[in-house]
Design a protein that fits this description.
There is one protein chain. The chain contains six helices and four strands, in the order ααβαββααβα. The chain is mostly helical and 155 residues long. The chain has one domain. Strands 1-4 form a two-stranded antiparallel ribbon. A two-stranded antiparallel ribbon has the order 2-3. The chain is globular. The two termini are 19 Å apart.
């Protein structure tokens, strides 16, 4: 087995640290006192129906792709009904719920209390943007293409 080069080791350590920061952002969001009443109706996962699709930074996309892979899947499906590709059709459950992206955590579902105001989470958004830059990202991309690209990079 070939040895890992110092450059590769540094890149891997930087990626690990960046993804840990994404997880800290998600954890901090969960501690904020915001009235939410999500009962996992999955209305926000119906992108075609709502006309809204979450945008992911590179760190979020890599974290979601790794969670997707950990679920035993390698390719992202293309649902014909316009639903999130990570929504399990039979059970209507998110297959990466614990690692779902920021936009899914601050969703726009009126039944759950509506979207969080940007001013309430702008500090967290800035941290995700910093991670994006650290990972060589070029800004947020729509969930399906962002995760598909991250999956291709993992291959």
């Amino acid at each position: 087995m070939p040895a890992i080069s110092p450059k590769t080791r540094l890149r891997d350590e930087a990626t690990h640290a960046a993804l840990a920061e994404v997880k800290r952002v998600y954890a901090e969001l969960a501690t904020r006192p915001v009235e939410r009443q999500c009962v996992r109706r999955t209305e926000c996962c119906q992108f075609k129906l709502t006309g809204l699709t979450p945008y992911l930074t590179k760190g979020e996309a890599v974290l979601a792709a790794r969670a997707w892979r950990a679920s035993g899947r390698t390719k992202l499906p293309s649902p014909t009904d316009g639903a999130c590709p990570m929504l399990e059709p039979q059970s209507s459950r998110c297959l990466i719920y614990a690692d779902r992206p920021f936009g899914c955590r601050t969703h726009f579902c009126a039944a759950a209390g509506g979207p969080l105001a940007r001013r309430e989470v702008v500090d967290l958004i800035r941290r995700l943007e910093t991670v994006d830059a650290q990972l060589g990202g070029d800004g947020p991309h729509k969930l399906p293409s962002a995760v598909a690209s991250a999956l291709a990079d993992l291959a």
